[in-house]
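Course assignment 3, question 2. Fill in each field.
Student: A.L.
Task: Predict the tertiary structure for the chain below.
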Amino acid sequence: MGCGSGRPYGEKEVKAYIEKCQPRLPSAELTEDGNIKLKTTDGFFNSSPLLDSTWLQGKITNNEYREAIEHINKRVAQSVIGTSNTLSIEQVPKSHSAKLAIEELNSKYEGRIHFSYEQNNAENSINTNESFIFITFK
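Answer field:
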């Protein structure tokens, strides 16, 4: 192996990382306009059930909400598996995988809720790796 080469991240390693980081991930927030906002700095989102299921406005269950966020995390994890560990898991690009997962969820929940993904690209931001999921209700 040459200088700077590393071994690829494996499925077990990425799964362990997600399980370890879940407790420290920011909880979902209810925005002023009644939408749900999730934030991350490493590409993975807190999949814990909401403490107040009324935020879901009866459009999906708390279990469906949790499964949807887990679906995003699984898709994002797939983009990390096989990537060289010369980059930390936090540094591996994940936005494309998150967007694909959100497209799948929007198809599944069409007419009930809508997921959107935003990434903070502000140069003056303290953390340029912030990304968000917004859940809006129809």
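Instructor remarks: The longest strand covers residues 113-119. The beta strands are 29-30, 36-40, 113-119, 131-137.
Grade: pending
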